[in-house]
Structure formats: C-alpha cells, structure tokens
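Holo prediction — protoporphyrin IX containing FE.
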Amino acid sequence: MSKASSQGSDPVQNSEPAQHVAPESGSARGRLSRRGLFGAIGAGAALAGAGAVVGRVTAPEHTHAAADIVEFRGEHQSGIVTPTQDRLHFVSFDVVTESRDRLVAMLREWTEVAERMTKGEETYPGAAVDGPQYAPPKDTGEALGLAPSQLTLTIGFGPSLFGTADNDRFDIYARKPAALVDLPHFPGQILNPAISGGDIAIQACSNDPQVAVHAVRNLARIGTGIVAVKWSQLGFGRTSSTSTDQVTARNLMGFKDGTNNLKAEDPSAVSEFVWVDPADDQDWLAGGSFLVTRRIRMLIESWDRTTLNEQERVIGRFKGNGAPFGGSEEFDQVDLQSAGPHGPMIDHRAHIRLASAESLGGVKLLRRGYNFTDGSDGFGHLDAGLFFIAYCRNPQTQFVPMQLQLARSDLLNEYIQHTSSAVFAVPPGLRDGQYWGSTLFGAAGSPPA
Ligand code: HEM
C-alpha cells in the first residue's frame, strides 16, 4: 500500500510542498512524448485514409511517490488531522434531486472517483483523452501529469440534508445528529446567505491548487442534476498547523497562526475534542467529527494603518516570532496571569485570552483554516481574510461558546467581519468497500424497513 499517512494517529511527516514531478512509466506508451504520439497517429491516419479506425492518442502513464499520496481510507477521514496542505478548494452543494437512490448512487460514484484522484489518477482510467471522441471526456484533464500533491477530499453533511419531520425527503431525518443545527446569530456578523450553509460540503486540500480545483470540478460535473454548487471558496497559505512537524504559517494580518492549535501528535486531545464518540450522538457519526466554516473578511486597510504595538496587543503575541506576551519563544506556555507594572501582559480583550481553553472552561477545537483573497470590493479595498475551518466533537459546546465570547469582546472585531457560516457533520473514515455516506444511508443505500 502506498501509504503516506493513516488518519487520526499517524500523521504524514512530509509537510513540504510536493514536487510536481510525475515520472512517466517505462512502458513504450509512457516513453513517447505527446507530440511524438500525435505525429505517429497523424501519419497512421493519413495512411489509413478517411473513416478508417486508427489508434488514439493516449495519456501518458505516471507513477507517483508514496509520500505524495495521503491514504483515502482509514478510521477517520483524511483532511482533518492530516498535516495541513498549502491550498484549499472548499465547495458546498445543494441537493437538487428528490431521489434517495440517485443521491446514494452519486455518493458511490464520488467515492470511487475521489479515491482515484487522491492517488493522482484520472477520474476513470483514460477518461481525459482516451474516451470516445464524440462525447465529453469524463475527466476534465487539467490534472494530467500533475502529482497527487497530498490531495485529501473530506465530505460533510449539512443540517438541511436531513430535511424536516414534515419533509423527510431522504428518509434520514431520524438520523440527524442533535448537535447538527445551524449556528446561532453572533453579535456583529453580517452573513451573506448565498455563501452560507449547504447540504453537502467537500473540502479539497492539496499542495497544488490545480489538483484541488480539478477534484472539485470533476465531482461537481459527476453530480450534475443531483447536486448544484451553492458556493465555493479558494484558499492559500494555510493558517494553521495540525502537526508539530509543520512550521507555523502566517495569516494575512502577518501573525503566526496555529501555534496553540490541537496537533495530530496529541491523540488523546484529538479524541477528546475532535472525534465523535459512539456515546455522544448518532451511531453513524462515531469516529467522525463536525466541521464549522466561517468566511472572515479582514478590514485590511484599517489593520495596515494600526501600529505594531496595537496589533500585538489585539492578538496577545509578538508579531515577529509569535511568542505570547510574558514569554520569549513561540511555543512558550501562555500565562494569562502574567502582569507588568501597568496591568496584565495579555490584555483582557486580547484574542488569545478570549479564545483560550483556560477562559472557556477547558474548551478546545482543531483549526484548519486558509487565507483568501477574492479580488477587491469595488471601493478599492481588498476582499481578503481568513476562511476559518474548525473540526470539533460538538459545535454547540465548543465552537459556539468560543465564538460567542470572541464576538462579544475580542479586540480583533474592529478589524474583521464574518460574512459566511456553515456547519456539517463529517462521517467517519471508510473501510474497504464502503462509500461516502455508507454509515448514514446503509451499505445497500436503501431506506430502513
Ligand atoms: C480573522 C480572524 C482570526 C484571526 C486573524 C486569528 C488569529 C489568531 C492568532 C494570530 C492566534 C495566535 C496563534 C495561535 O495560537 O494560533 C490565534 C489563536 C487562536 N484563535 Fe484565532 N484568529 C481568528 C479567528 C478565530 C476564530 C473565529 C476562532 C474560534 C471561534 C479562533 C480561535 C482561536 C484559538 C482557539 C486560538 C488559540 C488560543 C490559545 O492560545 O489557547 N480564532 N488566532
């Protein structure tokens, strides 16, 4: 098995950007250049004459480095504690069919294709250029020749997928987790409903943006008539580390982000705060998690006019090396009690004080967000910020109190604006033979008798 990581306990060590080198196989077909093949076929076609059946140009075969592949199957889905890749394409779908059978059939097909794409393969063997000439290719082709780039594809199911007691469209209302309800209103947020919520989410993370975009594009194409893209978000420059092997990256405010995050190397904390326990909620979700997304726009121009002193007071850490006030190194313990001659070192309203487990009765979550820049807003301001992603065992008792405390008092609020919100239940990882949704819809996919 070309295994680079097993989700949950054994993180990938290689967090460096992948080499985008996909050596061609030693087969005769692999050794021929694309141009050479076209030339050969052109000659063949000329000889055979119009209307004759000739060989078609085939895509070169590739082999990929095992370290560049993140194992798709495992106890937990990949893309959660997997060391955060550099790029994100997140997409939220509305289900547009009323047919449970069609939905389950699509989830099965998605699973098969997703597993292939995470190995750096086409959606179907030869689908990009070897298929029938008078039909649209079943792989869009832009990832041909690219390495898997540690692509992970993680699926989640939104509250609306489960319908209501009166409209139980897919016979799963009784299986809706108690914690899977839309997040409450938080002070100060101005959400755009067009880019919030959704029935099904796919988080595609990769070290190559084209690989992530290709994966989402092909899943959307396969889902035509069954799902429709509601909204999507591209991200770059991960704003969190999920492994102690990773260097802490910086967010667009210029601060190291992810220092005090949960890390894969602490499996007991991950079990306590990320994985749903069988006793917690619905059986089908055991070993899964909950995913919260918040698109948080930064008021970059205001931030950029703020003194360094003030920026550091807002966060509670030094901008240079990320050390907490009262400490000298990035990973020094945060001491909320430390005080100087003029009061507490870490302001009462500093971000790291209000978000800390210590001030929240022990609550933590796993952050896995990305920077985004979506151009400018028409007034000459950058539309940029943090696409916040968190995984937790229960959003109502972890994310909600944390965000409530931040929304009420965080000094950061002067410089940010939450513009979208979503929550999804993330099923556990797949064993061999299982498909995305197996535990929810059943192995056969038919409704309970
Ligand atoms: C644009 C918005 C945000 C920015 C710029 C931001 C930035 C930061 C920075 C620089 C740190 C310190 C380094 C670290 O430990 O990771 C931090 C810590 C943290 N942030 Fe945020 N953050 C934002 C939003 C949020 C939100 C929405 C939440 C959760 C509701 C959150 C939860 C946390 C937590 C739990 C910590 C660790 C606190 C501790 O030291 O215990 N952040 N954030």
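READOUT: Residues 62-441 form one domain.
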